[in-house]
Amino acid sequence: MHDDNCCNPPRRSFLSAVAGITAATALTAVGGGGAQAATNDPYADPPNPALEKGNMKLDRSRAALVVIDPQIDFMSPKGLAWPVVGESVTEHNVVANLGRLFEAAKAADIVVAISPHYYYHWDHSWKIQGPLEVFQHKVGIFDRKGPYTQDGFRGSGADFLPEFKAYIEDGKTIICSPHKLYGPQANDLPLQARKQRVDQIILAGMLANMCVESHCREFLELGFEVGIVRDAVAAPKLPEGDGYLSALINFRYMANGLWTTDEVVKMLVQA
């Protein structure tokens, strides 16, 4: 388990090395792309799409805002994952946009649920791990001392971002059991949604190409309508690829709605 002071030199060295590789890769990509890379928005929707957009119409009587992993390790410069996700979080103004979504959802009196990510010491002994799991366990992202204690939790990387606590800790927000990999299959989020007669999900949070996409896929398979807030999600940028771009492409294929924060706030006010 990681030191709550987040000052472990080997982990910081590992993250610095990854961030350096990422920056070099980004510079190479811009240099190789010429004027097109310098002038085009890689995240802009295609001018002549082949697919029609989803037809989801928000009904706040059966809708919930679901925010995934609104935690320090992913969304703060103090977080352990910041060297690889910070550029995307900043680029899409994710923290401010999530704040606006929380505020609008509370004003509209819709269900708000958090799907958090925690790791306990026994999770670090997993015999089967994928690349991102190895990364997270190596640097100590989302580590907690146990499910029945808050010892060392407050202010740690696993804690909620301070900007969101007034919304999350208001006694009304549903804080689900943790998901362990990427989707909600192992936590109680789908059950909590059904118990509130929710069948529309407004999805936001982290990481766009991992947990957000996995939550989207699972909810779609369960028959929910899913709208994703495209500027309230972010992802790592690594030599393996831009996670935000890969997620955005899949969202265009799958999501019932793909909206901006401005659009969602307007819908919540008008619903």
From TrEMBL:
Gene Ontology MF annotations: hydrolase activity
InterPro entries in alphabetical order: Isochorismatase-like_dom, Isochorismatase-like_hydrls, Isochorismatase-like_sf, TAT_signal
All copies of domain Isochorismatase-like, residue ranges: 63-238
Top-level lineage group: Bacteria
Keyword annotations: Hydrolase
Ranges in a coiled coil: none
Protein name: Isochorismatase family protein
Organism from which the protein derives: Ensifer canadensis
